[in-house]
Amino acid sequence: MASGKRTRFGARAPARFESGPNMTPLVDVVMVILIFLMLVGSFATQELILQQKAGLFSVASSSARPPDPNQVPDEPIIVRVDPTADGGYIVRADNIQATSGTVLHDQMKAQFENLIRIGKDQTKIAVVVQPSGDVAYGQLIEVYEAVLKAGFEKVSFATPR
Amino acid sequence: MGKRHMPESHAEHPNVVPLIDVMLCIIVFYMLAAKIGVAAGKQEGIELPETLFGNKLTLSNTLTINVTTIGLGGQEVPRVTAAVDDTGTPVALDVGSPMDGPLTQALLRARFGNDRREGGTGTNADRPSLRVVIRADANKVKYRHLAPVLQAVANAKIENIDYNTRKGKPKN
Q: Hey, CA dihedral for B107, B112, B115, B117, is it positive or negative?
């Protein structure tokens, strides 16, 4: 900082310079790193989770979890998923047949609303997704999402057929 | 003769020190946030399925299980990794038998402590609220690869299972 003020007697006071380190390159680099990290953060895809609120449903008795004797479970809705020759999948359940998540969602939602209308307890309705071993995980998650989105809370997978 | 002025370089600059402080703090924050993903036991290179529905991923009291496949003897077999030790780095675990294979044993240790049985304190303490986050490859992993993992999780008496997905774009 320069001090060029005149003194009371008109003489110029000695100038004082405060020449600290030059911060400009540091600020430039830090700014670039900051903008890079912010862009990387904003372009990164957000990750989600689909929660499973019911235990694994076992078809075989070997690894079956013993049912709670105090709570008699309702008969679950079994949703069977099988692969098709064209690389897709087909979902079959009572009154339900779908080959895409959107169609399955609409049909499951109608079924869920029917069950609620006849007085079923929402928390007691269980859905078991029972895929065959050749169904891809991505397709299973599509089915799982469609069932959850339809309103069912207790959705689980079954051991493979 | 004209009046002499101070050179431009010695003119008064704005004080940039607080700006640098704040920027360095933000950089450290972003670098740590990026590091958390690695420490959470996520394996890179897994193509997660896309969903629109789902809850936000939180990584407190969770154990991430990465499931993908490798070719072995002409067929695809599951390859499971999880950060079951204290380093936070995912290690390969053989599924073996879902009843008492290496994966089940590792999950029992995560759930019930070193003694792998209910009860105990300290290193043997139980973690009843432990959540397992399944990160499986959408295309490579078939249900026959995933089912033994789910059975191992069930046999380790871990009740909370989350399926990790990435947020997709709505299809019109």
A: negative
Which of B12, B99, B143 lies nearest to residue A160, judging by beta carbons?
B143
> Rounded to 5 degrees, what angle do the CA atoms B150, B151, B154 make?
90
Please write the tens of the pLDDT for every residue from B36-82.
655 577 888 889 999 998 888 877 788 899 999 988 878 888 899 98
Question: Angle CA(B146)–CA(B150)–CA(B153) in degrees, nearest 5?
Answer: 140
Q: Would you call B147 and A133 a contact, using CB atoms and an 8 Å cutoff?
A: yes
Query: Rounded to two decimals, what is the model's pTM?
Result: 0.74
Contacts of A35 in chain B (CB under 8 A): none
- Residue of A52, A92, A157 lying closest to B148 (CA atoms): A157
| pLDDT tens column, B108-132 | 998 998 888 888 788 888 888 888 9
Q: Which fold has domain A77-157?
A: Nucleotidyltransferase; domain 5 (3.30.420)
Cα gap B69→B91, rounded to integer Å: 15
Quick check: A48 and B55 CB within 8 A?
yes
